[in-house]
Write a structure and sequence with these properties.
Layout lengths: L5 H4 L7 E5 L5 H11 L3 E6 L2 H13 L3 E6 L8 H12 L4 E4 L14 H29 L2 E6 L12 H20 L5 E7 L2 E2 L3 H4 L10 E2 L1 H14 L3 E3 L3 H12 L1 H10 L2 H26 L2
Parallel strand pairs: 1-2, 1-4, 2-3, 4-5, 5-6, 6-9, 7-8
């Protein structure tokens, strides 16, 4: 393996074309703004044309170039169409940020087959397929960067959020394997593992985060992603030193890790999230049925 050069350690984002999935809401909007500050061309992909147009205008106002492409990434079989459109309107992609994801809190037995398939498709299969389609051009130019947004739930399985945990753990392992495959190229792979954020579900449902959890601001996550690209960071865990140590020890002693999960109240917190989410969805379905009689 050849030694790293200065250029490999410090990459520039200015003037690069960045594909950002899940760009219109949550952490995605903050990532788009952080890239705009770097004067990148940001190709924003999500399902909502209206939300994409808003974030595109923000990017332009901040000095970047915004391109919006409404697309449902759950249609994995049609991602080749998306890749062709990106090439047509933006040219070669230099940086991929696989950010789009969904999570559904449930007791495991309450998941439907459709739930399982939708979570795994958007969170894991779509990033893999989109990267597979765009990677050859990066290898041809021997430059580029792939950022996969995973989660602390991918480091230690989250009760009542098991399918999401599985998808994010898969993202971590795929990223690691891909990073080894690309070690002798100038295509980097970074995995970012946020924990609880102020753009997340605990805020939405007014449920306190588990004891000891560090709450990150979405802008901090976005800035971390920019730094990871510039410095070719392999994996960044934003949960703080205590939880980083916890994740490491849990690998050596799952029994210890499980006992801490119980004592920290994670099971109870996630159970509350699950039942509040399920109740809200039930009310939403009832209202939909009433409005469509």
């Amino acid at each position: 393996m050849r030694p790293y050069t200065t250029e490999q350690i410090m990459k520039t984002i200015t003037g690069k074309t960045v594909l950002l999935t899940g760009a219109s809401g949550g952490i995605g909007a903050y990532i788009a703004r952080a890239l705009a500050k770097e004067q990148a061309t940001v190709v924003c992909v999500s399902r909502s044309p209206e939300a994409l147009e808003r974030i595109r205008l923000e990017i332009e106002a901040m000095g970047g170039k915004g391109i919006s492409i409404p697309f449902d990434l759950a249609n994995v079989e049609e991602l080749s169409i998306l890749a062709e459109k990106i090439d047509r309107v933006a040219g070669s992609v230099n940086i991929i940020i696989n950010n789009a994801a969904i999570e559904k809190f449930r007791p495991f037995q309450n998941y439907s087959l459709e739930d399982i398939q939708s979570i795994l498709t958007l969170n894991l299969h779509a990033p893999m397929e989109l990267t597979r389609l765009l990677l050859p051009q990066m290898l041809k130019s021997n430059s580029g960067h792939i950022v996969n947004i995973s989660s602390g739930a991918g480091k230690k399985g989250a009760p009542f959020n098991s399918i999401y945990s599985a998808s994010k753990a898969g993202l971590i392992m795929w990223s690691e394997a891909l990073r080894h495959e690309l070690a002798n190229t100038d295509v980097g792979v970074s995995t970012i593992c946020p924990g609880c954020t102020n753009a997340g579900m605990f805020l939405d449902l007014d449920i306190p985060a588990p004891k000891g959890a560090r709450i990150a601001e979405p802008a901090e996550v976005a800035d971390t992603i920019v730094r990871a690209i510039k410095h070719n960071h392999k994996e960044v865990v934003l949960d703080g030193l205590t939880l980083k140590v916890f994740y490491a020890i849990s690998q050596l002693s799952p029994e210890f890790g499980d006992s801490i999960i119980q004592k920290a109240g994670v099971v109870e917190t996630n159970r509350d999230c699950a039942y509040k989410k399920m109740q809200a969805e039930s009310v939403g379905r009832s209202n939909f049925q009433l409005n469509n009689r």
